[in-house]
Design a protein that fits this description.
The chain has helices at 27-38, 74-79, 101-120, 128-137, 139-154, 165-168, 172-181, 183-209, 227-231, 269-274, 278-290, 326-336, 351-360, 401-407, 410-420, 427-437, 447-450, 480-492, and strands at residues 6-10, 43-45, 213-219, 246-250, 260-265, 293-297, 304-309, 319-322, 341-343, 364-367, 389-392, 442-446, 510-512, 515-516, 528-529. By secondary structure, it is of the alpha/beta class. It has a domain at 13-38 and 48-203 and 452-487: Alpha-Beta Barrel (TIM Barrel). The protein has an 8-stranded parallel β-sheet. A 4-stranded antiparallel β-sheet has the order 5-4-7-8, with no helix packed on it. A 3-stranded antiparallel β-sheet has the order 14-13-15. Helix 1 packs parallel to helix 18 (480-492), helix 5 (139-154) crosses helix 8 and helix 11 (278-290) crosses helix 12. The longest helix has 27 residues, at 183-209. The two termini are 23 Å apart. Residues 499-531 have low confidence and may be disordered.
Length: 531
């Protein structure tokens, strides 16, 4: 039986063109979807969609549930009558090819508050029922997040552990008083989340209508200074004052003699198990309201994670501790049905991690840039792939393929040329062709590789505290010629779309509440195949 094969592109919405300093969910997002469809791409991978945190990273968010308010399209708000068009006529002269986050925030936040004020005064009346429905449906996380953000602003941005103890430790009377005192600020943050959800929902629906599935991203660990930890202290290893006793990290290796001290609080897995992993189930349920498939970052921690005492001088003081293993996935599947996961199984991967991945039958990741530092037995070389995997030319954490190839030593570069049977003069598209030709069911390339860009367009350099996540493309760079080239290769290697099952059902023809919600050849709970 022929397997269904897919092709796709990684591009985070912040990278879209926009006159407002950062890519958003307005017109360029819809044009990008149309470009994907023209190129016969059926997968669009994004980074975490939540509010950004330390270093402007989407992986250090103050919430595992919320959306990034900076992605809200101001032009869309004007169309809704929530902003006066004149406010958008003369925006600051933002750079066209990068995001300057502080400047963007300083520009957009007052406009979002203006939109909220207009809404309170009666603008956008048609949105009120939807806003009320959104608040009711997302109450389980929204009330804590909105209050957390209001309190953070009231305390000049200080971490929650520095707030007065009665608030930091969530004494009921103090929470009730804060909700009353900060009522308008709480409602503002609820409203902003509604705007994000409404706009992103339309972009995702448009993608689904164009037969494009959206792959999202869940980092396994969450930031300490987050609504998640503040509102769920019992699920993490904290002391009685709410301070972490242990944090996550990475052990020493050939590159870092002291290891990596991440600082994220680690989970109290025993306590999580006692709840039936309810918070994790809610988290994945919320993610599947936003995307069709979820990539789990740092999957290995579900098998075992490197735990470091919070006050240790370096991560070398840590030790391995077992994770929840299969139990957490069984608990989530019991509530949510089959889980459409891709797992990030890169880095220090031990046999227990691979055994858990294979037992759960989740696709792992193969990165072509990792394939040429050893011999023909390298697991990232295409001839060694399991079809149940996702091959990438590179990821958001890698150099662009052109930048990587230029930095290689002569011996490794010769190995690449010999394996590909190409001279490397068009190495980015050589890699794209190799990925598409592989047996992996899913092949994905960063948009920077599709555009043949050098390291100036790199999205993230791990270990660098700032200067990341800022790359944007300009409108002329997303041209039809690139889409047509992708279509030709995608069709050549049989990845232009799903094969219809004998029953006549298309794997894309699933809906939740009337909204297209495709999964990879299987339905999730509440998803009904349409005859």
């Amino acid at each position: 039986m022929l397997r269904t094969r897919y092709a796709g592109v990684i591009c985070h919405p912040t990278s879209f063109p926009s006159p407002h300093g950062i890519g958003d969910l307005g017109e360029p997002a819809f044009r990008y979807v149309e470009w994907l469809a023209r190129g016969a791409q059926t997968l669009w991978q994004v980074l975490p969609l939540g509010p950004i945190g330390f270093g402007n990273s989407p992986y250090a968010s103050p919430s595992a549930f919320a959306g990034n308010e900076l992605l809200i399209s101001l032009s869309w708000l004007a169309g809704d009558g929530l902003l006066d068009e004149s406010r958008l006529v003369d925006p600051p002269a933002f750079p066209a090819s990068e995001v300057v986050f502080d400047e963007v925030r300083a520009y957009k936040q007052p406009l979002l508050r203006d939109a909220f004020d207009r809404f309170r005064r009666g603008a956008g009346q048609s949105l009120r029922p939807a806003f009320d429905e959104f608040r009711a449906a997302h109450l389980f996380w929204l009330k804590d997040f909105a209050l957390f953000m209001a309190l953070k602003e009231a305390h000049a941005g200080a971490a929650w552990s520095a707030w007065p103890s009665e608030i930091a430790l969530r004494e009921p009377a103090a929470l009730a008083a804060a909700n009353e005192q900060l009522r308008d600020e709480v409602r503002f943050h609820e409203f902003v989340q509604f705007l994000f959800a409404r706009q992103w929902g339309e972009v995702r629906r448009y993608a689904n209508e164009h037969r494009v599935q959206v792959i999202g991203d869940i980092p396994i660990f969450v930031a300490y200074d987050s609504a998640d930890v503040w509102a769920n202290r019992e699920l993490f290893r904290l002391d009685e004052d709410g301070r972490p006793t242990d944090v996550a990290g990475v052990p020493p290796d050939a590159f870092t003699a002291e290891g990596q001290f991440w600082g994220n609080p680690v989970y109290d897995w025993e306590r999580n198990a006692e709840t039936g992993y309810a918070w994790w189930t809610d988290r994945v349920r919320a993610a599947l309201h936003q995307v069709d498939v979820v990539r789990i970052d740092h999957f290995r921690a579900f098998a075992a994670s490197w735990v470091v005492p919070a006050h240790a001088p370096t991560a070398a003081a840590g030790h391995w501790e077992p994770g929840p293993g299969r139990a957490i996935f069984d608990a989530m599947a019991a509530e949510l049905g089959p889980l459409p996961f891709v797992v990030e199984d890169l880095g220090l991967v031990t046999p227990d991690v691979l055994a858990l991945r294979d037992e759960l039958e989740y696709p792992g990741m193969k990165v072509l840039q990792f394939a040429f530092d050893s011999g023909p037995g390298n697991a990232y070389l295409p001839h060694n792939y399991d079809p149940v995997s996702v091959v990438y030319t590179g990821t958001h954490d890698n150099q662009t393929t052109i930048g990587w190839f230029r930095a290689l030593g002569d011996g490794t570069r010769s190995s690449v040329q010999r394996y590909l049977g190409r001279d490397g003069s068009d190495i980015a598209w050589d890699f794209i062709r190799t990925a598409l030709a592989s047996v992996a069911d899913r092949a994905i390339a960063p948009l920077q590789d599709v555009m043949r860009l050098d390291d100036d367009a790199r999205m993230n350099t791990p270990g660098r505290p700032d200067g990341n996540w800022a790359w944007r493309y300009q409108p002329h760079q997303l041209h039809e010629g690139l889409a047509d080239g992708l279509r030709e290769l995608t069709e050549t290697y049989g990845r232009a779309g799903p094969i219809r099952p004998p029953q006549g059902h298309d794997p894309f023809d699933y809906t939740v509440d009337g909204t297209a919600h495709p999964l990879w050849d299987r339905a999730a709970p509440g998803i009904v195949a349409q005859d």
